[in-house]
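Known limitations

Files may contain more than one protein. Parsers should not assume a single record per file. Below, a two-record file is shown to illustrate correct handling: read the sequence, read the token line, then continue until end of file.
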Amino acid sequence: MNLVGIVLRFLYEVFYVYYLLMIVVILLGWTPLFRTGFYRFLSKITGVYLDHFTGKLIYRAVDFTPILGLILFRVLLYVIETSLF
């Protein structure tokens, strides 16, 4: 495997963990656990990306724009993954 492949593989793994953390933050935001320090910590980490999508598509009391952010991030992961193989 060449250097570009190694770097892409590393980026894919890091982005995939970040993707999973975003899912955890979104799910915890719908529970009473969003008041915990763990949630605030994860929210600061994932807020770098998810804050760009917050508050743009709200229906009643539910904000659906983080889901749009997840979908776009997953597309990025798919592009990296297909370039690896």
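...continuing to the second record:
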Amino acid sequence: MTKTIIALSAALLMLSAASSANAQDAMAGHDMSAMGGSMETSLPEICQTEAGKQAAAAMPSMGMGHTMSMPEGNMAMMAGMDQMNKDMSAASMVSDVDVAFVCSMIPHHQGAIDMAKAELEYGDDEWAKTMAQKVIDAQEQEIADMRAWLEQQK
């Protein structure tokens, strides 16, 4: 099982590296903290391992190239996805597969929240903005449920 998790993490790292440059270069000069993502892991302690921290540190960013100009809303969504990928990679290193699953789902849901917040800030379409708010509401509740379950696992 551990070999499978490590192989999946390595594959994710290679896929991310093959399809991306550095998102931070594409977002240079922009304060991404206002986009909803913390850019630091907010994983519960039970989700953090030394191997996971190393995997997250090695995870390349998802950028679209060094010269591509991208609207701020798109950059905000990419920043959320970049953080999500790093945190999911770190969380997947927990040895208990049930805990690893729940730990990995927290950043997955947080990534959806960050993308939805970018839609609310930059989007124009009312239907899309309504959907974004629904995503935020549902994902925040599910994150709270997952954190409560993780507290019981200690």
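Parsers that stop after the first record will miss the second one. For reference, the second record is described as follows. Residues 16 and 60 are 7 Å apart (CA to CA).
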